[in-house]
């Protein structure tokens, strides 16, 4: 996945960056110009970080590496983008959920707020080769998951996939 990865990742990355930016905007106190800059900086940081860790043929490969996580520690990519607009980690912790996990994978961007929250899909596109149909059947929507109290699928950031 050479230069093609950049184009392929664009939608997933812009979806994820827009989501984090929306969370900041909702919290208030950050100007539109700062938000725009934050979003661009975050997209750039993600592109750079994911460049050699994007595998459209094996979307789950490298998922732990691409996972953006705030869990009493600020994710370095979010921290870096926030630093560009002068937001400290302390300020970020006030503005963003204290526990946020964002998975940015080929064909799917999903997030979870809180360690026991439901996983919600922000973006999903069918994979070439028609594998998507099976995945979709097995997943219930956020609302259903929340209603039935079913625990979210065990996607964990700790499971790093090592790629050679």
From TrEMBL:
GO biological process, alphabetically ordered: negative regulation of cell population proliferation
TM segment ranges: none
Biased composition (Polar residues): 149-164
Descriptive protein name: BTG1 protein
Gene name of the encoded protein: Btg1_0
Domain Anti-proliferative protein: 96-115
Chain positions covered by the region annotation Disordered: 128-164
Superkingdom classification of source: Eukaryota
Protein family according to the UniProt entry: Belongs to the BTG family.
Biased composition (Basic and acidic residues): 134-148
InterPro entries membership: Anti_prolifrtn, BTG, BTG-like_sf
A Gene Ontology cellular-component term: nucleus
SUPFAM superfamilies, per the entry: BTG domain-like (SSF160696)
